[in-house]
Each structure stands twice: as structure tokens, then as C-alpha cells.
């Protein structure tokens, strides 16, 4: 029973863990590993409940007539083991969250062990008991909402086969039904009763799961669409300013863990107001679309292209030095210079752009780097436009 009290004491630790998780925003926006941490905390809570229930039975002799006491004593030890295991499994999710093998395999391991422990307890209390049925349906539906479908079905298809097999073997007399209890009435051996329960349960379960899956698919599609619209500029189909700020914040967090190497490039179209005033805003919009297309063509998939406002764009070049950023910016400058755009009167519209570059350096935060790139852009404009200027190679180096 000493283990029982120590497990109860650990509940305060799990409470603090839950509070820290909820500080990271809505549950639906959490990463898979954070959702697994929540699931592990809930799994530990389930087994803590079992420990308390079984401990209460052991401490009250008047309840022994209703249960298999020897089995209860064995199972409480196993519940304590699961409680400790689920608590310890939270550690890899926290310490090694950045490791790919943890991100790829640990959710499957966590969900698999949790479902296996629930199936074991479901057999002990009876596979057709209300508690088992409610637990099964609840875990499937909640799992489909929170976790990827593949992860959920990989765990619950074997669980379904296991529960169905236990029910069949219990009916055939090969296995004991609900061995933890001393049952009377033996309704589980009545074929008519079992078939009647399955007749009502299976259609309702299948219908609910089908409707839930359909609604969930529509809801996820809508959420993805809303998220996409909130992060993308509708005209150029590049990232908007809000999304760019999020990328810069992520770089700031990454810088605290390790020294990230990247470069920020600001791009401003030269004399863009004249294009709008002379040829119309529709031609200005067309110029912005063509420029964004060229910028996207000349960067890597891992890089970020965004419209920072008006006629200004931004490039975030990951794993790029100042020299590499200059080469990318020069290719983009030449590509923009070669854009062919005609007015409504078939007059050629010339498009050029100025570029300002700032490369990452120790102690310089992303927002500061953005200001440095803006100074470099100003210098490029001052030198005659249609140029690439780097902050650390410019004449104002001594102002850092």
C-alpha cells in the first residue's frame, strides 16, 4: 500500500504538467507530442483510479464476496506499474521532443500501450459492460479529434479484434467473462442476450463512427482552409505579414536553443506608385503577382517568401550566409528586371526592385535583423535603386 500513497502523491506533479500544457494554447493547436503528453497524463489518471478502487476493496473485507480478491491483489500491482510507466513516458516527450525518432514513433508507442492497458481492464470487467463500451467509443472519438487517423486506427483495430475475440471465447466457455467479479445470473452465456446486445450496439456504433468521421473530415478541412487564409496574402499567394512575424518568432525561439544561421532579405519595387498612377491598380496588382512568382522560383522550398506590405516583400533564407543571400538576391533582382508586362495600350512596363540584406549574427534577434535589412534596403534606394545592398558591407557598418 506504500506504492498506493506514493502514486497519489505524484498526482500533484501531473496537475502541474497539465497546467503548463494548457498555457501553450488551445488543445487542437498542440503538436502531436504535446497531445501524447496529455494522453499519458490521462492514462496515468485512469490507472490511479483503478489503484484507488482496488485499494478500497482490499481495505474493506465486506466487499471481498463480490470480487476475486487474489486477482485484485495481482492487478493492483500491475496498475501501479502502468501508472509509473505512463508517468515516466512523459520524460522523452519533453526532453527529446526535437528528435525525429521521438516525433515519428513515440506517439504510436504511447497510444499502443495505453489502448492495450485499457483492453486488459475491459476484459477484466467484461467486454460487454457499459464501462468498457463507453470507454471504447469515447477513446475512439476523442482520439480521432486529437490525433492523426492512422495513429488512432493502428491502435483501435487490433483493440476491436481483441475485445471481440474475448467476448466470443467467453461465450464459448474458453475464457472467464469479467473474471474480476463474482457474477450471478450468467447472462453473458445466453446467446440470445449477447446477440441482442450486439444487434443494438454494432449498428449504433458504426453509424456514429461514420457520421463522426465525415463531420471530422469536413471540420478539419475547414480548419486547414481558415489557417491557410489567415497566413497567406490573397493577391500574391505568399505568406502575409502575420505569418512572417510568426516565422521570425520561431527563429527567436530557435536562437535561444542553438545559433541559427539565416538571412533576411527585404525587397521593394522601384517606383511602384508610378505604375499604379500611370497604368492603373490592376496592372500594379499584376506586377506584384509576377514579382512574387519570380521570388518563389529562385528560393528553396525551405525558405520563406512573404508580402510584407504594399509593394514590399521579404525573404527568410534558412541556413544561408551573407554571401549566399547576396547570390540569391542578385538572381531575384535579374529575374524581376526581365519580367515582361504590358499596359492596356501594349506599352512595356519596366519593373525593377531594390534589395536589402542582413545576415544573422550572435546576439542579434530576428526583429533587430529585420531593422538592419531595412537600413540596407534604404541604402540600395539611395544608391540609385535596382541594386542589392548588404548591411554589413554598406557604408554604415559602424552604426551596428
Produce a short descriptive summary:
Its EC number is 2.7.7.65. This protein is α+β, with helices and mostly antiparallel strands.
Characterization of the model:
GO terms for molecular function: diguanylate cyclase activity. InterPro entries: Diguanylate_Cyclase (IPR050469), GGDEF_dom (IPR000160), Nucleotide_cyclase (IPR029787), Rev_trsase/Diguanyl_cyclase (IPR043128). It catalyses: 2 GTP = 3',3'-c-di-GMP + 2 diphosphate. It is a single chain. With 400 residues, the protein is of the alpha+beta class. It has two domains: 2-189; 241-399, Alpha-Beta Plaits. It is built from 14 helices and seven strands. It is elongated.
Tell me the number of structural domains: 2
Termini, distance in Å?
Answer: 65 Å
Shape: elongated
Strand content: 5-15%
Helix coverage percent of residues? Answer: 55-70%
How many DSSP H or I helices? Answer: 14
Strand-pairing-aware structural class: alpha+beta
Order of helices and strands: HHHHHHHHHHEHHEEHEEEHE
Side-by-side strand order of the widest sheet: 2-3-1-6-7
Largest beta-sheet characterization: 5 strands, mixed
Counting copies of identical and different chains, the oligomeric state is: single chain
Number of strands: 7
Amino acid at each position: 500500500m506504500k506504492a498506493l500513497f506514493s502514486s497519489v502523491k505524484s498526482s500533484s506533479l501531473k496537475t502541474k504538467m497539465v497546467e503548463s500544457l494548457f498555457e501553450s494554447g488551445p488543445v487542437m493547436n498542440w503538436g502531436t507530442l504535446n497531445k501524447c503528453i496529455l494522453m499519458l497524463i490521462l492514462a496515468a489518471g485512469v490507472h490511479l483510479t483503478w489503484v484507488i478502487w482496488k485499494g478500497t476493496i482490499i481495505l474493506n473485507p465486506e466487499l471481498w464476496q463480490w470480487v476475486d480478491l487474489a486477482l485484485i491483489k495481482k492487478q493492483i500491482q500491475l496498475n501501479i506499474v502502468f501508472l509509473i510507466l505512463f508517468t515516466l513516458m512523459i520524460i522523452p516527450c519533453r526532453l527529446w521532443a526535437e528528435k525525429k525518432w521521438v516525433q515519428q514513433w513515440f506517439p504510436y508507442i504511447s497510444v499502443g500501450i495505453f489502448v492495450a492497458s485499457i483492453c486488459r481492464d475491459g476484459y477484466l470487467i467484461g467486454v460487454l459492460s457499459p464501462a468498457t463500451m463507453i470507454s471504447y467509443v469515447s477513446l475512439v472519438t476523442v482520439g480521432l479529434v486529437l490525433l492523426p487517423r492512422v495513429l488512432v486506427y493502428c491502435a483501435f483495430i487490433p483493440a476491436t479484434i481483441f475485445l471481440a475475440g474475448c467476448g466470443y471465447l467467453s461465450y464459448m466457455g474458453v475464457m472467464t467473462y469479467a473474471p474480476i467479479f463474482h457474477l450471478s445470473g450468467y447472462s453473458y452465456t445466453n446467446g440470445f442476450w449477447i446477440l441482442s446486445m450486439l444487434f443494438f450496439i454494432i449498428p449504433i456504433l458504426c453509424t456514429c463512427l461514420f457520421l463522426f468521421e465525415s463531420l471530422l473530415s469536413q471540420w478539419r478541412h475547414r480548419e486547414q482552409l481558415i489557417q491557410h487564409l489567415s497566413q497567406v496574402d490573397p493577391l500574391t499567394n505568399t505568406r502575409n505579414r502575420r505569418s512572417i512575424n510568426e516565422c521570425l518568432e520561431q527563429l527567436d525561439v530557435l536562437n535561444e536553443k542553438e545559433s541559427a544561421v539565416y538571412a533576411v532579405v527585404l525587397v521593394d519595387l522601384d517606383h511602384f506608385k508610378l505604375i499604379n498612377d500611370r497604368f492603373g491598380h490592376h496592372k500594379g496588382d499584376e506586377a506584384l503577382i509576377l514579382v512574387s512568382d519570380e521570388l518563389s522560383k529562385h528560393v528553396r522550398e525551405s525558405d520563406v517568401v512573404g508580402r510584407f506590405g504594399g509593394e514590399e516583400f521579404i525573404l527568410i533564407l534558412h541556413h544561408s550566409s551573407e554571401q549566399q543571400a547576396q547570390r540569391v538576391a542578385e538572381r531575384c533582382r535579374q529575374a524581376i528586371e526581365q519580367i515582361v508586362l504590358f499596359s492596356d495600350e501594349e506599352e512595356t512596363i519596366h519593373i525593377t526592385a531594390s534589395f536589402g540584406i542582413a545576415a544573422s549574427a550572435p546576439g542579434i534577434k530576428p526583429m533587430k535583423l529585420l531593422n538592419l535589412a531595412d537600413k540596407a534596403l534604404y541604402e540600395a534606394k539611395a544608391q540609385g535603386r535596382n541594386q542589392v545592398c548588404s548591411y554589413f558591407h554598406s557604408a554604415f557598418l559602424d552604426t551596428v
